[in-house]
Amino acid sequence: MSRYNEFVALVIEQLALIGDLRVRAMFSGYGVYLDDRIFAIIVDDRLYFKADPSTRHEFEIKGLMPFTYVSRGKTVTMQYFEAPPEVFEDQEVMHMWARKALSVASRVKKKPKKSNDPFEVQP
């Protein structure tokens, strides 16, 4: 039996063709990884793709908002933007946005891999 909800399962199914994904529970959501690089997060049944200054404008011109949370009374804005709704209607569009996020993730220095990860979720 899966340890994640239907929305997470849908996202993984839509992204399956881009490679061997790993989903890891984190805080109040999930991180989506390819080759040990996080490129998307899922929080409250919303998909967010990793962005940087080179891709941020593509999200902003579509009116898509970054992921934010409140910590110690202050709003923290992450470098992940909500996926456009059309990614759920067209798998090619999903893959296009995912590849952009993967490109951003590949430019971020890789952190050392943890072994025996108790939070890893198997599809």
Automatic annotation (TrEMBL):
Segments forming domain TfoX N-terminal: 13-104
Pfam families per record: TfoX_N
PANTHER family xrefs: PROTEIN SXY (PTHR36121)
Name of the protein in question: DNA transformation protein
